[in-house]
């Protein structure tokens, strides 16, 4: 069994690799498995396979390089148990410390996913202080204003959600970025060959939208 921190690090590295390979940020929610057409080109979808998690409604995704992730019904209340099963039986990860310092997080807000009709949301262990930072501010505001009118078939990770995935607290509308947050965004820009102002502007725009929706 591999330690949980090793699993988390590998997941983050794989996210960056797949993002660079397919030139699209990773999915966090989708409506149904039928939307994935293996004949599509230039997409992460081509390198993806799916299998059920036992007799549950959850599914396991195997992406480029053999990296596994778990997707669950946002309405399911036993998602922590499902994630433990996934870790121990499929990813071969020691889950004994899972909830000591982490929340098993829906990378797309549960309430918002249900409201928009998404049947599968990706789970990931996020440091609990980081997760609650995002949930209390950014996600709460975005969920309150979510519209069920013409939602897309899938949702991709935005710049603020990516900060959560990498273990950084949510930016605050009224304050400056911390040194760690600032450096993370600069690293993102460098990794993907993007102008820094594009990344910083994306975060600022998202926070403005969330602020306006409160």
Terminal Cα separation, in Å?
Answer: 44 Å
Q: Roughly what fraction of the amino acids lie in strands? A: 15-25%
The overall strand count is 7
Structural class: alpha+beta
Please give the domain count. Answer: 1
Radius of gyration: 17 Å
Oligomer: single chain
* Order of helical and strand elements: HEEEEHHEHEHHEHHH
Structural description of this entry:
It is a single chain. Helix content is 46%, strand content 15%. By secondary structure, it is of the alpha+beta class. It has one domain. The termini are far apart.
Annotation keywords:
214 residues; alpha+beta; 7-stranded antiparallel sheet; 9 helices; 15% strand
At a glance:
The protein has 214 residues and is of the alpha+beta class.
Note the topology.
Elements: H1 4-22, E1 27-30, E2 49-52, E3 59-62, E4 68-72, H2 79-91, H3 98-101, E5 102-106, H4 110-116, E6 120-127, H5 128-136, H6 138-144, E7 154-156, H7 159-165, H8 179-192, H9 196-213
Helix pairs in contact: 5-6, 6-9, 8-9
């Amino acid at each position: 069994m591999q330690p949980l921190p090793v699993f988390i690090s590998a997941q983050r590295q794989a996210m960056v690799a797949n993002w660079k390979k397919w030139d699209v940020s990773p999915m966090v929610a989708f409506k149904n498995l039928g939307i994935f057409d293996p004949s599509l080109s230039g997409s992460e979808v081509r390198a993806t396979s799916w299998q059920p998690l036992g007799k549950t409604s959850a599914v396991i995704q195997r992406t480029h390089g053999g990296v596994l992730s778990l997707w669950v019904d946002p309405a399911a209340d036993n998602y922590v148990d499902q994630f433990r099963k996934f870790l121990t039986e499929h990813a071969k990860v020691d889950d004994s410390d899972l909830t000591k310092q982490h929340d098993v997080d829906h990378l797309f807000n549960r309430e918002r996913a249900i409201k928009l009709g998404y049947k599968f949301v990706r789970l990931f262990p996020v440091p609990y202080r980081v997760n609650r930072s995002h949930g209390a501010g950014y996600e709460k505001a975005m969920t309150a204003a979510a519209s069920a009118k013409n939602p897309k078939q899938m949702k991709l990770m935005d710049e603020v959600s990516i900060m959560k995935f990498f273990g950084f607290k949510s930016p605050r509308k009224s304050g400056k970025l911390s040194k760690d947050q600032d450096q993370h965004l600069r690293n993102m820009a460098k990794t993907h060959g993007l102008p820094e102002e594009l990344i910083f502007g994306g975060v600022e725009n998202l926070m403005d939208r969330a602020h306006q929706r409160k």
